[in-house]
Amino acid sequence: MLINKDMKMVEVIHMNHHLLHVINRFGIQLGFGEKSVEVVCKEHQVDLNFFLDLINTYHNRSYFPLQNLLKIKANMLVDYLHKTHQYYLEFKVPEIESYIDRLLSDNVLEEESKQLLSDFFQQYKAELTQHIQIEETMVYPYAIALEKYLKQKISKEELTGYLKKYSIAEYEEEHGDIEEKLFDLKNIIIKYLPAPRDSRLLNVILHDLFELELDLNNHCHIENMILVPIVEEMEKALSETP
Description:
By secondary structure, the protein is an all-alpha fold. The protein is built from 11 helices and no strands.
């Protein structure tokens, strides 16, 4: 069942509470009473069609309205992707790290096991952070600059600076898979860590890692299938501009 504009926003949360953090990325927080999705989006100046297409993409894995999403504005998509990065770096990753720190303080675990877990997590954190920094400092500003130039909001000279630094072809080549190390980290916990005093802590960490993995998969899918084609289309329009 897909989410529609006439549903109450509270019904959406009850239907799938995992969507809460996605809804938050649109600047929508709890406290919307009995208001419908349409009314809440209007009050928060959120594009209703974009909200519904994206929220249903997360809600239903088989739903991906490619043609609809390809029509959205680059700045709107980049804003959402930027807030997703903030969620990872400012909340989700630190939350997981705090659980791992608690686990590492357990004297039952051998030092070798603690070091292995700590090293893998820090390597993954560094890799994810570097990946995000590339997107935030190069890819997203490039997409915004293209859109602004085509709308005649910046000069050719301003755009040239971005063109010298980047192109979406480079992004496609270096947009590597950041999932492998996360998979290894989960396997270390599942296969090799002895049970700590509080085994529930391992379950909490694993649950959060699986949730992060799913969210990252959706995030990368949107970048590959939506952001890249939108930018490629703008590059094509730029090449045809006298």
